[in-house]
């Protein structure tokens, strides 16, 4: 058995654990909708709830993602043969979103609503752009991996 043949089952197994694109899009739509609803209602607590939903997903991955579990249930008929996205990308993107929303919570708590909404809108903008076809977080992830390889050789 060649090295390539030995790796094929591992690659297939990893792909099964990756996240179906309908759930990825649900995650993006949730980010956009929640931030816009919060902004329209001038309710920073909406972004607080979004932060609370994203933080476990960023820390522990899809098994701790409320959006992932809701998507599996709500979109069950659409995810069976759907394209999949690398779960590491989704976790990286959720970590960026959680960091920005965490910064927004700090800004809101310190009486800086403009900064809080700016950070929240950055999340919504990135998710909206990803829905249109360009994932900013994915681009940053690949740049990080590429430069890490160039610098460290791994």
Which descriptors apply to this entry?
154 residues, mainly alpha, two-stranded antiparallel sheet, 8 helices, 2 strands
Measured as a percent range, the helix fraction is over 70%
Radius of gyration in whole Å, from Cα? 17 Å
**How many extended strands?**
2
Measured by DSSP, the beta-strand proportion falls in: under 5%
- Biggest sheet layout: 2 strands, antiparallel
Number of domains: 1
Q: Overall pLDDT, averaged?
A: 90
Q: What is the rounded distance between the termini?
A: 26 Å
Structural features, described:
With 154 residues, the protein is mostly helical. It has one domain (3-152). 81% of the residues lie in helices and 3% in strands.
């Amino acid at each position: 058995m060649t090295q390539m043949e030995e790796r094929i089952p591992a690659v297939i197994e990893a792909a099964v654990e990756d996240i179906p694109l309908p759930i990825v899009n649900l995650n993006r739509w949730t980010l956009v909708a929640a931030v816009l609803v919060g902004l329209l209602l001038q309710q920073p607590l909406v972004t607080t709830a979004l932060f609370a939903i994203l933080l476990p997903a960023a820390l522990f991955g899809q098994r701790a993602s409320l959006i992932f579990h809701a998507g599996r249930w709500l979109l069950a008929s659409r995810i069976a043969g759907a394209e999949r996205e690398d779960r590491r990308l989704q976790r990286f993107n959720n970590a960026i979103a959680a960091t920005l929303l965490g910064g927004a919570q700090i800004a809101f708590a310190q009486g800086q609503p403009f900064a809080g909404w700016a950070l929240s809108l950055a999340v919504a903008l990135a998710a909206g752009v990803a829905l249109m076809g360009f994932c900013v977080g994915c681009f940053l992830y690949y740049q990080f991996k590429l430069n890490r390889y160039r610098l460290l050789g791994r």
